[in-house]
Known about the structure:
With 255 residues, this protein is mainly α. It has one domain (1-252). It has 13 helices and two strands, in the order H-H-E-H-H-H-H-H-H-H-H-H-H-H-E. The protein has a two-stranded antiparallel ribbon. It is globular. It starts with a helix and ends with a strand. It is found in: Membrane. Pfam families: FA_desaturase.
Amino acid sequence: IAGLYGLYLCFTSAKWQTVILAIILNEMAILGITAGAHRLWSHRSYKAAVPLQIILMIFNSLAFQNSAINWVRDHRMHHKYSDTDGDPHNASRGFFYSHVGWLLVKKHPEVKKRGKMIDMSDIYSNPVLRFQKKYAIPFIGMICFVLPTIIPMYFWGETLSNAWHITMLRYVFSLNSIFLVNSAAHLYGYRPYDKNILPAENKIALIACLGDSFHNYHHVFPWDYRASELGNIGMNWTAQFIDFFAWIGWAYDLK
């Protein structure tokens, strides 16, 4: 409800700077998932220097989809037990469940059982991710909600109501953008690489998730940092982000 009211405020009383900031922060938050939690930490499809890891950890905190450590555990389970009872957001249970329903109910016993078997040694040895996990509540809360609300108020005199509700709009939008990969990209689209799995190439979710919905390809070749055949560079902004940091030397060993 707060997000919907924020959308209304974007067209009525909010200052344009507040709207632009929300758009920028939304893209940063999504990159924190796609380039950070997903392609870097879950799949180790490239390596990142510490400064880039810190940037991605901050971006990931903007997204606030639990800590990156928890996100990686769930995603590794998702690939290992895709669309079975061992998959946290099993798409065979329908669109709503895989989109958001799995967060509203108790975990399936098989998810709890299989989660303990996932190798997370590389993640638990990462000091950047350990920091985020240790200080998750104050740090993620500050990055995701407090600062995006205070900045418009301090720098260009935005009202508290406008700043807060547009922050909530940005948060809800980034959540659903990533959730579309779990739901729409597992149910709708074409399957040129493996017709026997649910993940599909879904162009509807493509723009929202910055190139992470070439999903049939990704589940067949999860190690590819581009998560798409030949990069599909025109619509794969996450790959372009990684390529930029590879150019300056902060991303390397791209697979």
